[in-house]
Amino acid sequence: MPLIDAELQKILVCPCPHHAELSVDEEAAQLRCEHCHLGFAVRDGIPIMMLEEAIAGSDFEAEKCGAPEAVQAAVRKPE
Ligand SMILES: [Zn+2]
């Protein structure tokens, strides 16, 4: 079973100012922005598309993200 519905994935974009497309990371159960590399958890097939809930990938680039600093501070860093 796919992480999320393919039709749903098609219409979703990253909430970062670039609204970039998302790729599916099945292993991490996340959608990942192809521009800023933020990850968004998927719970029961529902992606949590909020910058405040985003998970920064190891290759997250704050400058590329372009989100306000307050939002970036809330982004969770990988452990
Ligand atoms: Zn993004």
Word description of this protein:
The protein has a single domain, classed as N-terminal domain of TfIIb (Single Sheet), CATH 2.20.25. It is 20% helix and 23% strand. Strands 1, 2, 3, 4 and 5 form a five-stranded antiparallel sheet that branches. The relative contact order is 0.20. The radius of gyration is 12 Å and the shape is globular. The chain is built from three helices and five strands. With 79 residues, it is of the alpha+beta class. Zinc ion is lined by residues 14, 16, 18, 20, 33, 35-36, 38, 65.
Key phrases:
79 residues, 3 helices, five-stranded antiparallel β-sheet
Provide a quick synopsis of the model.
By secondary structure, the protein is of the alpha+beta class.
Q: Which small molecules are bound?
A: zinc ion
* Fold-level CATH name: N-terminal domain of TfIIb
Q: Alpha-carbon distance between the termini?
A: 28 Å
CATH class annotation: Mainly Beta
Helix content: 10-25%
Characterize the biggest β-sheet: 5 strands, antiparallel
The number of domains is 1
Low-confidence stretches: none
CATH architecture: Single Sheet
Give the integer mean of the pLDDT values: 87
Question: What is the fold's blueprint, element by element?
Answer:
Elements (H helix, E strand, L loop, with lengths): L5 H6 L10 E4 L4 E4 L4 E6 L2 E2 L7 E2 L5 H4 L3 H6 L5
Antiparallel strand pairs: 1-2, 2-3, 3-4, 3-5
Bound molecules: zinc ion (ZN).
The site of zinc ion has 9 residues, from loops.
